[in-house]
Structures are given as structure tokens and as C-alpha cells.
């Protein structure tokens, strides 16, 4: 049977969850493999009966009774949050916790978000003031940072905890040692940055932050955290005992239990830790590369890119096509705003950034979400080039393909290679738009491509032309019933 790798091609929030749910039911999928990201994900799925669930660590195909979730070693897991997510999902669906746990499989090498990762995440952001990265504050990205930063390798034991440490049947010592190392690191950072982070902390956050610091940085607090992992997970009651969910032979488990699979990615390529637009990126891998590595034995696998019919971005960071023309007319009630991730911003579809994402992910086809959000627009714009208003230097020449107009204006046509300076140049770019006629027609009840307005079909064809990809499915609403095969 066919399998699919789904990945975000923009800044995240592309609608990955709703497409996973659709494919799972259409293709009768056995399992959803969460291959990157962590508990920061919020993949909203709305069923035809209007049940709403924001999938964080469970695979977004779990509304299908036969579908299992595989959490791979490339995921950063939060076991506390997973329990809460299961409880919420169980209450909404009537599926018991034990039955859900029979369908969840967690790789023993997964690294775990601890309370210390969540705290250092907040402290590091607050210490940077206006130069903060724009994290969502869950500590997921911090796990990868502390494991990858070379200057931190001197810490022994490592500044991280794996699932297999928690479920070690012989000893609690690995948990204690790692929690102590994390407490020492966070305490040192806090003492060195105490003044500036309190200056930057919003007033409404200070009381809860003081309590969190007092609880976690009190001498020997790490012992309470370590013992908590044992009592909550290692010695947990039978209905929430994760020990039976742990596996250590990923390929064999997946081959045995999954005849068909959806590999569900998290976030978007443009905020990837290695290829994203610095400095406002995650420390995580948001490409589809790990999914390709673990799916190599599958003959029939389709690499799918997910993108909105326009563009959006949470919080801080370069966003060339952002405009009030779009943000004043589009809202997304499923996207929460907070101090950490900011509010969601909107703009027109950016084909240059999409083609850059495609140069890395190399997907086979494109699923287009939120097409119905453009129903009321008289005209719609698509950015296919940038006007550049900065200095053309050696680095610029290495990053961009461009041409020079007779009046000397520089026009960027593509990004040809990654650079950490990419964002610096993009800040000096102005979109050059293709303008097309909107369809001003309600598409939310359309179920067949032949019933879409002519202007809508022309817009889809334009996106196919400038992305050089076939758009095989479009979404005109939040449920699996609102998906149209093209």
C-alpha cells in the first residue's frame, strides 16, 4: 500500500493535521509516524461531527480507530503533556486510555522535555530582550540546543534525559544525575542574567516565573523532579503505564505493524534549525530528511509538501509578503497568541521562499490549504520576484539569482543556496507581485474540482506554474469532507 511523507513548506501552520486526518481515512492508513518536532506542535483536526482536537504528540490520524502513532527518536517528547493529550482525546472520543496506549509506540532514544528545559527556554528568551528568537516557550527546542552546543559538552552527565533512562529497570541514578546537571546549568544561567531578564519580563508573567524559579532552583530540587519521573511513569498505574509503549527496534516495529503509513512532520522548512531564515528559527529539524531515512525500504512513498494558499507566520521574524491587505481580512481562530510565540501574521503567497523550501525538501506534489480563506478577495497577489534595495556584494551573489533592470533596479528571481545572512538580505526586499482576479464565490461547500470557480482554478494553475509542482489536493474548509482531489 502507498505511504506518504508530509512536511510544511512555509513558516508552519500550513494545515498538516487536517491533511493527515483526510489521508488516514481515505487511504485506510495503519499508522502515523511523528518524525520531527515535539510537543510544541498544535495540529488542529476538526471532524465532520465538529469534534476539535489539537494534536501535539499523537499522530493526527488517531480519529481512525485502527491508526497507531509512532513517536520516533527524532522527536522531543513531553510525557506529562502526552498524558494530558490522551485524557483530553479520550474524553472527546470515548476511547479508553488503555485502548489509546495500545496504539502508541515511543522510541526509547527519544529525548525528554523536563521542567528545567522549559525554564531555561523562558530565561534565555527573556535575557535577549528585543533580540529574542521567538520560541513558543515549551522547552522542546532547548532540548536540542543543549545536546548540540559544543561548549556544553563539558557537562557530565549530558544535559538531557532519554525515555530509556526513565524506564531503566535497574536504577534511578541516570535520572538523578541528569536532573542535577540540568539544575546546575539553569541556576548558573539565571544568576548570570538575573538583572536583565527581570527587566525584560512582562509584569503579568513575573509572579508565576518567580514561583517556577523558586521551585526548580531550590537546592536538591532535582531529587524531587527525578523521583517524580519514577512515580508518574516508571511506577505508574496500569492505565497510564508507558513502559509497554517503549520500543527499541524502530524499523522492525514499523515493518511489522504498518502496511501503510503517513509520516507527519512538524513546523515548516523556513524556520528549520539548519536551513531556516535566521535568527528567528527553531533548533529542531523541520525538513523531511529523517522521514526519508527511516522510510527507505518502502517502494511506494510520496513526498508531499503542505502550503497555504497565502502565507502566515507566528511572532517574530522576516516575512517579505506580510501585508494588512491580507491580515485585515483573514483570521485563524485555531491559532493562539501568547507572549512567547506572538500573534499570527498574514501575507500573500511567496513563490521565491516556496521554491527555496522545495530545493531542500524535494517533494513530489503539493497539498494546498485554506483556499476558502481567499473567497472574498476581489484581487489576489502572488510574489514571484523581489525588488532588492541593498548592496550587491560577494555574499549576495552567492545566495541569489537576480537580474538588473535598465534603470539599475535589482530583481531577485530565486534563492540558490542557504546562508545565515539570508534574513539580512530579505529585510531589504520588496515583493514584486503577479495580480490576478479573485473569484468572490463561497467555495466551502464545493466537493468537486469541476465546481470550483474559473478564477479559482486559474489561481491554482498559476501556483502550479510558479512552484513547478502539481497541486493534487486543495482544502476549502477545516474537515476531511472539505478536501478536493484535483
Look up the CATH topology of the largest domain. Adenylosuccinate Synthetase, Chain A, domain 1
Q: Largest sheet, order of strands side by side?
A: 9-7-5-2-10-1-11-15-20-21
Shape: globular
CATH architecture of the largest domain: 3-Layer(aba) Sandwich
Provide the domain count: 2
CATH superfamily of the largest domain: Adenylosuccinate Synthetase, subunit A, domain 1
Instruction: State Rg.
Output: 23 Å
State the distance separating the first and last CA atoms: 21 Å
Description of the molecule:
- It contains 16 helices and 21 strands.
- The protein has 486 residues and is α/β, with parallel strands linked by helices.
- The strands form five sheets. A ten-stranded mixed sheet has the order 9-7-5-2-10-1-11-15-20-21, with helices on both faces. Strands 14, 16, 17, 18 and 19 form a five-stranded mixed sheet that branches.
- A hairpin with a 5-residue loop joins strand 3 (43-46) and strand 4.
- The protein starts with a strand and ends with a strand.
- The mean pLDDT is 90.
